[in-house]
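Supplementary Note 3. Input sequence used for the single-chain structure prediction.
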Amino acid sequence: MFEVGDYIIYGNNGVCKITNVGPMDMPGVPKTRLYYTMTPCYIRDSSIFTPVDNDRVVMRKVMSRQEAEKFLETAEDIAKLDIKEEKHREQEYKAAILTCDPTVLVGIIKTIQDRMQDRIAEGKKVTASDTKYIHIAEDSLYGELAISFDMEKDDVKAYVKDRIDI
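The predicted structure, written as discrete structure tokens, is reproduced below.
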């Protein structure tokens, strides 16, 4: 169970800070069930309420600084996604994003960066799908690392690029 003050990844909402753990004071909600009250770090003026035992959404603690350092040391070795059928590309991107796994996010970023470079070299445009999913993956990864390294989210991309080749 997470504690008040913990930073967690909460599905596609990204990094959230736990602000309360306890029953909800709302009509129709059982007083015996515990809920997390969370504030998303990168979505203004918003709160999220979810049962402590919610197993339908990925909830995990944000990497510590040491875990993030170790992660970056191994990130260059992370493989790109192996997308066999072009017509399933977007489905595979979506499924990968839903894991909220930083290793998978790096794989998506590498995959899309290579694909974008190849398309540009061939005189083709970058697809809207590639643009969309690289932004989602980077936003998620760099949002978590910003908390881990106690940095501004906008500075993390340059920090990571200085350390590894992605």
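The longest helix spans residues 128-149. Strands lie at 7-10, 15-22, 35-40, 48-51, 59-61.
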